[in-house]
Amino acid sequence: MHRIVKSGVAWSALTIALAAGAPVWAQAPAAPAEMASDNEIIVTAQRREEKLKDVPLTVTAFNAAELERNGTTATRDLAMITPGITIQNTGAQLQATIRGIGTTIVAGGAESPVAVYVDGVYIASQNFAVFDLVNIDSIQVLKGPQGTLFGRNATGGAILVNTKKPSDTLTGKLTASYGRFDEVRVGGYLSGPITNGISASLAAYYRDDNGFTKDALRNTDLSTYQEYNIRGKLLLEPGEATSITLSGDYGRVEDSTGISIRSIGSGPRATSSVGAFIPSDPYKLALTFDPFAHSWGWGGSAEIQHDFDGVVAKSLTAYRNTDHRSFTDQDRVAAAINRVNVTINENVFTQEFTLSSSEPGPFQWLGGLYYFHQKDFNPVLSNGALVTESRLKAEAGAAFAEGTYEVLPQFKVTAGVRYSKEKRENAQRRAAGNPLTTKREATFDSWTPRLSLVYEVDPQSNVYFTYSKGFKSGLYNATAFGLPAIKPETVQAYEGGFKHSSNEITLNVSAYYYDYKNLQLQTRDANGLALTLNATDATIYGVDGDFTYRITPAFRVRIAGAYTNGTYGTFTNAPFFAPAPAPAGGNIQFTGNASGNPLIRTPKVTGNVGVNYDRELANGDKIGAAVTYYYNSGFAWTVDNRSRQSEYSLVNAEVSYTLQNNLKLSVWGRNLTNTRYGQGVSVTAFADAIAYARPISYGVTGTYSF
């Protein structure tokens, strides 16, 4: 009783104290990535708790302590610690590419082929997949098609974010940080019991900074960022076999970092506005206004789970509403040539029912039904005039099943399949032309099987082979009028690997080959408006691996790397751009042959090295230090291979001191080499343009945990 009274007082205090928050999501389908007593990582990549070495696919998993230690504060930072993945942040929108599979399409109804799940709930919108990591328990990055268990739009892989579940003891955390560019971060969470069988958690977060670029003519701050969000969970346990988790959240992100974009260089390539001023400082721009991208959303979910003596039944219901508004300067210079307004309002309802085995035995199984309903409203204006207004609708259903059978004590076979069917509609109107309105419909379906073989070499080591297929549904172009739907993407993947885990060493190595069909791409028309199309096909192969050596209980080294070779097949109708001759300037757009060109946003080599040292002193205080090095060999931004990101390296570091009362003080630095590299590139008829990533930053953080 004393514990419950104490928890109630703390709940009241936190409700008053925290006025900002972080996005709230649903209860996880299973316990997230954790460390077992023998340093074995527990993951849920196959939607059940398993040791990482027993999972026949490539998984990179981090718990909360590892994320904090490596300076990973948001989903956009995952590339720093995960080889084989690149992330482009285009103004409050997250675009991840895993092993060459990603998307450049930003429009209503356009989902990423790298599916993001937060506590089991699919986050369909790219507009609200960027969020800072408060109250996060773990993140798992699944590489390769996940079409059987995670369904549509997971051809490249999946990112599973798990937040902390409400605890039965009072726990909490408060953190505050200040850094370069007047960056302020404040956040915290509180979790504990309310009464017998009922517990709850509340998390809140706020971030604000003045940006790292300026407008050279108007002296205004650009690349600014502001985020606030709040999330809460209520866990009801009416009996030992039953749990009900209710979740709700609200959040807002104002991010102009990916759209504060400047023309590259000078002369005819820079702009079609003759004589336009282009600052020589790469972190200064010259625009006619301050571009912005605002995303906000709210949602809720209900998970009901009951164990019927060996068979677990679960229902997960979720609803999300997101809004995105952006205003961008498409000519990239201080000339009022082309200003584009985009609005995307999205409503998504999902329902999933699953049955799964819960008792140990030679046969483990899972089956389920899934329903998805999405509506989007996407008007686009150019210089204040309506270009097109799209009202899109998607309705999808799926049935899936998968089982793992222990053929021999050392040999397991996993087989599964999913059938998906989807209908899409696009009703459009425009201000002028014939016709003024149009409506189109399209239906897509796919079978996505998986077969895995796992052989236990010894109690600490496994080898495996997996065949899987992924499916990304076709879609309509929301920013162009009257076009038919583009075809679905499909990926057939073959992967083999070796995994080893002991108290001192963890080693995971895999090799893979992908047959990638009907790639969906985005290009720009003469007015800078987005157009979608299918490339033909691509071939991707590579090697992925990570090695962790726990030299002492206090000292750990992790080395990870990936080699990825991805090229387009026959692609003779690719969108190309070439510099226009003076005095016209800008670019000439034409159709070219991209056959054999490298896939965009696909560096051949990525890698990272992390060194961590944590030690308890004789007086009970603790010291910690972490350094992370990241390497990227460079990649093509565009299919014509003309605009490229050169190779670059980044270094992050943090030093901390923790008192016995759990007050932790940290000094940190990000991009300590002050490397200049792009977080996004846009090539249009107006210009070649780039948004640079954040330069060197540093600051201090104070954290109190209990």
UniProtKB/TrEMBL annotation:
The keyword NAD does not apply. It is found in: Cell outer membrane. One of its GO terms (cellular component) is cell outer membrane. It is a multi-pass membrane protein. It comes from the Bacteria. GO terms for biological process: iron ion transport. This is TonB-dependent receptor.
